[in-house]
What does this fold into?
Amino acid sequence: MLCSVLRDALRSGCSLAAWAMAWPALLLAPLLAWGNPVSTENVTAHLLAEHNPTVPGQPLELLLSLTIRPGWHTYWRNPGDSGEAPRIDWTLPPGVSAGALQFPAPALIRVGPLANFGYSGRALHPVRLSIPADWPLGEPIPVRAQAHWLVCEEHCVPESAVLELTLNTAAAAGPSDPQAQEAFAQARAGLPVGTLAGATLTPTPGGLRLSLPRAGLGEAPTAVRFFPWSWGLIEPAADQPWRLAADRLELDLTPGETAGTADPGGLLTLTGADGAVRSFEVDATRVLPAQTPPRITAPSAPALGLPLALGLAFLGGLILNLMPCVFPVLAIKALSLAGQGGLSARQRGAHGLAYTAGVLVFFAALTAVLLAVRAGGTAIGWGFQLQYPPFVAIMAYVFLVLGLSLAGAVTLGGRLMGLAGGQVGGGSAGAFGTGALAALVAAPCTAPFMGAALGYALTLAWPLALAILLALGLGLAAPFLALSLTPGLARRLPRPGAWMEHLKQLLAFPMFATAAWLLWVLSVQTGPAGLALVLAGMLAASFGLWARERTAMAGRSWRRVGEGAALAGLAAALWLGFATAGSPTPQQSAAPAAPQAGLAAQPYTPARLTQARTQGRPVFVNMTAAWCITCLVNERVALRATSVAAAFRAADLLYLKGDWTGRDPQIGDYLAGFGRTGVPLYVYYPAGGEPRVLPQILTPASVLAALGSAVGAPR
It folds into this structure.
């Protein structure tokens, strides 16, 4: 074979000099065609080339081969009830491009009552590589592919591998390795042999009927299966009874959650008498227009009136001081109040006014951003800033540094020390910063009375909306301002003394706890990759601050080294924090969530809510977020209570949970329908009745009272 390739190349005009350079690569081509195998715990991955050397200007077929551990499986392009399809991130020379990953016909893999579409044993995914015609002969083409896949048994493991392949170029295609030829032949045998036109998808009283022309199907099959392109068209695990008439093949399908809107096309597999499987792409057309389910509308936002909205906002701001999410800043407040014992009335008043100004300036800025973004058509709400991983990362850095300062591990500058509680009497700048920090941490929380006021504010012109949110900020600042301006209250404060240093160090731990909570929020948003970036950023920042602290009393040169290390560490931390924006977002499974502490929660979707309401089933909706401590406390105290779980089961109640940790327009629209701009929001839909909004602070008794007669609970 090698001699014939050389002979054909010489006849085509390729110079002997070029072949003199290329012949070693030709001898090694069968080995190079396999690239480098990479083995994980569950999969061995290869990247194969059909020919090596290859001819510039001619397409080349590559193959991603995944040899799977027995009992485990990977996924098709539509994974079924759950899962994720493999994907590849390519690194290729300029001018070289790769096409889409192709998927041979999958198998039905049953997992309890659910079903997946995927592959066991070995998965082969062809992909076409395009090489420009002007690529220099003899110059190799480095190919680097980072492949990602999800492999599952009873549990699932996301895995990846970096696969590298060097393609040589010549005037004629080189020989193929026999094993590679076999793999490519097996992969092509699994690809669709054609497209079936004239297929129809018709709604029936019992579901859906897929009807296809028999012409072109070949011999009568012994088994038939339809795999839809899109999730939600059909129930993956349901049986598919089929009939073969004189001119049509018909399948009865069970509709899925998005049967009225999903792409009606898919892949049809036919099993012959010899066990061989053929597949066809199905280009189906709906016979009837998609049926739009009845729309479940939420009650409109109440028209409170401006005076009542201002009062509710102020009261909500007062209550924010008691919310768990504001507790870390209460530590800073405590030190600030204790440190005012030796100040004059004028100094205490200036301190309180500066603190209030910091709160109000932050709320004014936040209101401006909120109204501007919403005016641009983006659905965001209260606490939207914590939906962005870089912001969460920076806040984690802030609390880490404040904790290190309170613990005495690092010494910040005078103004920053005032913010961290070290020099509480050091001027108005520290008080202003403390107020801004209090508002910053309080922003994600929603206290009682706040929700209606904020929802009403966003329906008004911007000056009135700003007035309502400033009333909220004034309520947050009011207790500290009152203590600062009232001499009688100030005299009741403890005198400064040595105890303050011990308290300051003790209060470092709420700061560390808040940083740990923010890291958990980040892990929910970005997964392990984003969490690793921020942990590395914390390490860099801590080392830089430690180096600055250790060289603070040294000579001038060493002080510069320490300051440079601190700047470099903080810069690296910021860079790593902003890099979390590119971290992959964990995908929420479309399947029902696993039961948790007695409650079987399903992810909220409008389709699930509509379907349950249409069936007359009671529904409880919990709109929450990982960064909302109030939400987490309510869930732990009330929604996971044994009595509540028993009541939910007794009523056959559907529990829907909407996670607003990251931006989700559907959840934003749902909140807006109830006149809310943030979480938590709890809504109970009785069977056939109007929705009832629950309080924002839950107890088991309040949940059971809201359910009322539907579950036989006392009101």
User: Anything to note?
Assistant: The radius of gyration is 32 Å. The first strand starts at residue 38 and ends at 39. DSSP finds 20 helices and 23 strands in the chain.
